[in-house]
Amino acid sequence: MFQGETAITIDDKGRLTIPTAYREQVAGECANRLVLTYNPFESGCLWLFPYAAWELVRDQVNALSKVVKAHRDMQMKLVGAAAVVEPDSASRVLLPASQRATTGIEKKAVLLGMGDKFELWSEQEHLKKIRQTIGEGEITQAMAELRL
Asked: Which residues form the SpoVT-AbrB domain (predicted)?
């Protein structure tokens, strides 16, 4: 399980270094294979899945009907853009230039451990998102039942 927030620097070649806290987990549980793809719900963010978890997501998304536009959009953003990345000997993964450009991920980024996957945010989009509060009218029944 991945959790936590880490400020990340993307090097001049477009690589991010896997934080030390996650290296053993990525090497062991993920067999050093991750899949990087767009977050179809949030701009400025990429999803980074362990390969095995990705296969389940990929298969579910591909099973959606191709005649529904929202399904095709999700398939394009998730499956069509997916890139398998493997950390090098220095625990760096290369982020495709097209994904970095589309999300605005440049030198400064934020890596969030979200349980089954990571989210990689551009620093500016992360700041905007994290500064937003959840309004009373946005609270769902499931949220209201949480014991926080």
From this structure: 5-53, 82-125
